[in-house]
Amino acid sequence: MEKDDNITKEGRDNFNSTAELTSNPGFQSSLSITSKTDEKLYNPFEHRNLEHPNTVFGSILHLLKACLGSGILAMPAAFKNCGLIAGSIGTLLAGLVCIHTIHIFVKASQNICIDAKKPSMSFAETCGAVFTYGPKSVQSWGGFVKTLVDYSMALTYISVLCVYIVFIGSSFKEVLDVALPEYQLSIQMYCFMTLPLLLIICQIRNLKYLVPFSAIANIMILVVFAITMYYMFVDLPPLSEREMVADISQWPLFLGNTVIFAMEGIGVVMPVENEMANPQKFLGCPGVLNISMVIVIILYAIFGFFGYLQFGDDVKGSITLNLPQNSIIAKSATLLMAVVIFLSFALQFYVPMEMITRLLKKRKSDSYENVIQIAIRVTIVTITVAIAAAFPNLELVISFVGAVFFSTLGLFIPAVVDTVYHWDRGLGKFNYILWKNAVIAVVSIIALVSGAYVSIVGMIDEFSGDHDIGLLNNTLSYT
To answer: One Pfam family from the UniProt entry (predicted)?
Structure first.
């Protein structure tokens, strides 16, 4: 018995010696090579068991719909704060920064899935995991970071949903009050009238089944864009009548408006990537991300440049407010945009529900899961509609929240996540990753401050009765 123990101890010592040798960089045994190879064998894409995967085309449609909201109609007002030349260059730079921040975040998510051996991660899970598997000094922050980002994302998109409802109600009220003057209803009534349809569309739980809605919404928004562009290109004034470069003191307003609106789709990025049939096609060239964002940048630049060129300093927060109000075609554009926002509701609703669904999976029992899902969705949508109806000017407050969260979620957090991920893995030559991300963080802070400033100005204007300065207020104030 004692002899066997000695043999066991000797074998254990030999194993320990081998382990010590293989940990030495100067000695690579077959054991260490096999172990390292095994570590690299885990491919997150191969472990994604999706019941309803999205195609490349469907993923592009989702990203386009998420990024091409009402914000693009505010680009002419953004150009007013920067000028034609500065605005064009600024839109290109802002778009490239947005593409880069999304790219580095998705890449970090895909890489950290390998370390965590998980097939996919949400936006918040990625943030938490990067800290958990990062430098030892920040590993304990993983849970806190994940929770903070989770609730920030949910709060942001629930706020956006409230704005959507106000947008829909205000748009229909403006058109129907003229068409049916004997049946004039309040905004609150129009908001509540959207409730039954919203309850139905928000029961859709798979992004694949939302593709038709995104496709229809994209077609409609193209019609809206076509109508708007028709009025934009009619009798264009000469370039000399417009500012090429506006006063530099106004540039922060352009930056805040452009970056914040461009980041509208940041919360949809990870759900779209996670549910792709071929997620390796999300990044790269051309890739889903590059194709979608290039289209977004081009459309933003066109609307901003020619919208400001056409209407000059008289351009309002939403260019649709500059269209002839006595034109049936212009009115139809207003209604179509309201329908587009309605069809976008379920896609934006997917973001907070993704977090709630993950929390539900932690339940020990799956009993009544379907009933609970339906009840939660009905409750959230009903509360959202009630808040929007109770505070029809809620967009002024929510625009402040959106400015803070979108600039933070879209720029600051990806820069921090990328820095933490590379901290122990190498920050590149001359630590260029650190310096590059520091610049992005500074830009995000500027966007945050300038966006918050625009919202506060809008609030002041609301109390003073001036509805033509606050950007988001103009975008949504159709009453």
So the answer is: Aa_trans
